[in-house]
Amino acid sequence: MSSSDPAVSADDTAVDLQAAYEGAGIQTVLDQLDRELIGLRPVKARIREIAALLVVNRAREQVGLDTAPPSLHMSFTGHPGTGKTTVAERMSKILHGLGYVRKGHVVTATRDDLVGQYIGHTAPKTREMLKKAMGGVLFIDEAYYLYRPENERDYGAEAIEILLQVMEANRDDLVVIFAGYKERMDIFYQSNPGLSSRVANHIDFPDYSADELLAIARLILAAENYRFSEEANAAFAEYIVRRMQLPFFANARSIRNAIDRARMRQANRLFKRMGSPLTKLDLMTIEAEDIVASRVFQGEVEGLDPSEPITG
What we know:
This protein is an alpha/beta fold. The protein is about 50% helix and about 10% strand. It is built from 15 helices and seven strands. The chain has helices spanning about 5-10, 15-25, 25-35, 40-60, 85-95, 110-115, 120-135, 155-170, 180-190, 195-200, 210-225, 230-245, 250-270, 280-285, 290, and strands at about 75-80, 105-110, 135-140, 175-180, 200-205, 225-230, 285. The strands form two sheets. The protein has a five-stranded parallel β-sheet, with helices on both faces. Strand 3, helix 8 (about 155-170) and strand 4 (about 175-180) form a beta-alpha-beta unit. It is globular. Residues about 305-310 have low confidence and may be disordered.
């Protein structure tokens, strides 16, 4: 394109991308994400890329360039406890800061919130959840449960069709994020080409390493004014290795549950010392015995009902 082209020469208005970036509070949100979530480098990189696209899109609009609105509907895939819900909440803040959604809130839904049990029940349920999410983000966890082809009388397909209609008609006021296990989500998208074509941003959340999970445990403890003794730190590192090999492992969620149980054991241990003075350090410190008492050291899953769904 030559310099005499009117699209280039008609306006030399300058835009400050950094000012737009800072004004929308994006760096603050990304810094918060770094503090809240250990690791997840590829996820954080994708969020930064999406944020950059949105900032540039707004800058193009400011100088009068015709710009097709970006498709913001997303897919978050990965195992439970890998931070999908937290990232959805932070993404909604970025979208709100840039004016892509009016409110920036997140409404979380599952199949039970969207699909009815009889004719005429699904549409009002689905539309009610969409109404609640309008102006923000609708986060649909375990979204693949909406599609049940083995059941001819299932109403999940009706919910999907309503979602598709609203996702297309309200692209400037609603972002839908579908979440779940990657393998099941791939089948889910293959079942409905219309759905797949409307979800432009696919982000895969990797599992945490054992070292990352130990770092997460320390963050959780510090936030609640607890600490590991040196021996407890080593015991919890061993706990993580063992727990990762057992069923129903839910990454950071399993770690938080383990910390909660360790705190309970610590409280019971200290309670047995009733009558003896306790120091601030006593009240803060998780000891190795509070960790190794877990059934995980006997090869058993602790504190989880297998019939209870693990999501997020």
